[in-house]
Amino acid sequence: MSNKDEILEKKVNDSKKVINEAFDRFPLENLAITWTGGKDSTLTLWIIRQVCQERGIKVPKCMTIDEGDPFPEIEKFLKEWSTKWNIDLEICRNEDVLKAANYKLGATVKVKDLNERNQAEIKRIGYEEDEFPFEAESYVGNHLMKTVVLNQFIERNNIKAIFQGLRWDEQPARRKDEYFNFREGGELTPAHTRICPILHFTERDVWDTIFKYNIPFCELYKQGYRSLGAKTTSKKLSDIPAWEQDLEHTGERDGRRQDKEKAMEKLRKLGYM
Question: Please, what sign has the CA dihedral across residues 121, 126, 131, 135?
C-alpha cells in the first residue's frame, strides 16, 4: 500500500470513529443524514453506509433540500443512487414560498402572502421589506429555502442529531467547526446536534478517496464544476474536470454566489449549514 493510500485509509477510519461514536450516543431513529448530491455529502453517506454494514444496522433517514432552483443532473443522481443504495430519502421544500412565487425564479414574493411560520422567520432575520424577489441563495431566500426547511425536517422527524458533509478547508466560516456541534433550541429552532465526520478531509482528499474506492459522483464535476449549489448561481470556472484543476491554489467556492459566501457567518448563526 502506498503512503497516499495509507493516509486516505486513516482519514476514512477517523471518520468512522466519529460515526461510531454518533451511533453509540444517539438512537438510530433519532439520527438523520443531509445528502445534497454533492461530492462531500456523498462521501459522508458512503462512509456512514460502511459503518452501518459493519454494525449490521440500517442507514439513517436521509434528507435533501430542493430550494426551487435545482440542477436536473443532481436530481437524477440522487434518484439513481438512493435506489441503488436503498436509501430512505426525503426531498424537502418550502412549498409555501414556492407557491407565493408561483414556482418562478425572480418572481416577487409578498411577505403578507406567506404563512405564519415564514413571516415569523423573516422577522427573525431582521428583514423589514414588504416583499422580496424569489432567489434560492439570496439572504432571505437562503434562510427560507434551506435553514427553515432543515429545521422543519428536524422537528417533523424528531431528529436529535444529523450528519453533514462539511470540511474545514471548504469555507472560512467552517474552520473552527467540531465533529459534534450541539445547537441550543430557541425560537423557531429545534435543539439538535450536528455531526461532521469528514471535517479533516481536504478537497484533494475527497477526490482521491472517491477514485480509490470507486464512489459515485454527479456528472457536473466532470464538466468543471467544483462546488454545487443552486443551478442559476453555481458557475464553473473551468472546462476541465474538477479533480484535474488547481485545487490547492484556487478557491473551491469561487463559482458560488459571493454575497452569500461573505454572509456565511451570519447565515450559520441562524442555523444554516
Answer: negative
Element (H, E) at 79: helix 72-84
User: Contact, 59 vs 48, CB < 8 A?
Assistant: yes
Convert the pLDDT of each residue in 190-227 to its tens digit.
999 999 999 999 999 999 999 999 999 999 999 999 99
Q: Which residues pair with 33 in a beta bridge?
A: 62, 163
Task: Identify the pLDDT of residue 239.
Answer: 95
User: Given a cut of 90, is residue 1 above it in pLDDT?
Assistant: no
**What is the rounded CA–CA span in Å between residue 76 and residue 65?**
14
Neighbours of 215 (CB within 10 A): 17
3-state helix, strand, coil in the chain (%, to 5): 45, 10, 40
| In contact, 89 and 63? CB cutoff 8 Å | yes
Distances (CA, A) of 37 to 91, 130, 230: 12, 34, 12
Tens of pLDDT, residue by residue over 134-175, are 998 888 998 999 999 999 999 999 999 999 999 998 877 778
Strands (E) in 112-210, as ranges, are 131-133, 161-163, 180-183, 192-195
CATH of the domain at 88: 3.40.50.620
Domain that holds residue 200: 3-269
> What is the count of structural domains for the chain?
1
Residue 138 grid coordinates? 439570496
Q: Could you tell me the CA-to-CA distances from 159 to 33, 62, 63, 151 in Å, in that order?
A: 10, 11, 11, 10
